[in-house]
Amino acid sequence: MSHSALLIIDVQHSFQHRPFWQEDDLPAFQQALTRLIAGCQRQGVALVDVFHVAPEGPFSLASGYVKRLPFLAHQADVTVHKQVHNALTDSGLDAWLRERQIDHLIISGMRTEQCCETTTRVASDLGYKVTFVTEATLTFPMRHPDGTLFTPEQLKRHTETVLVDRFATLASVDDVLAQLKQE
């Protein structure tokens, strides 16, 4: 039995109904995430679908958009809903993981610098070993209040900078899968 879980955070239709949605980086993200999921399944790693929900708009359950993007075909071990930016504090996920003696979380999903990064920080604070797989995360350009535009690559690099050696280990899909084979 693996003591690891792959968190697949907010990879949901809701984002396609936001004004910042773009598909420039989607093919690479799909490929990386699909490989990561398949490899984790082979190693017996628990798969956790996490969906962000809100009272209204495209993230509301009533919208019909709180469902996986169509390229995902895996069977999740558990699906949780969250109303905050991390996957652990209001979803019941922390208790589910602890009941199964899972102490290592592999982070993937959407958006790199928001829910993925926040989940990583909270997981670390709660005592989990965390592996952040940047290539299996997706984000979109963001504009600073002063007008500066930050690209997805810049946002990802910033996230890596603030997480590494404090909150998480950074790893590629290949690195994660190789590590899991050794366990």
UniProtKB/TrEMBL annotation:
Give the Isochorismatase-like domain ranges. Answer: 4-142
Any one GO MF term held by the record is: hydrolase activity
- Keywords annotated in UniProt: Hydrolase
Q: Please give the Gene3D superfamilies that the UniProt record associates with this protein.
A: Isochorismatase-like (3.40.50.850)
Domain of life (superkingdom): Bacteria
| InterPro entries reported in the protein's UniProt record | Isochorismatase-like_dom, Isochorismatase-like_hydrls, Isochorismatase-like_sf
Matching entries from PANTHER family are given as: ISOCHORISMATASE-LIKE DOMAIN-CONTAINING PROTEIN, PEROXYUREIDOACRYLATE/UREIDOACRYLATE AMIDOHYDROLASE-RELATED
> What protein is this chain from?
Hydrolase
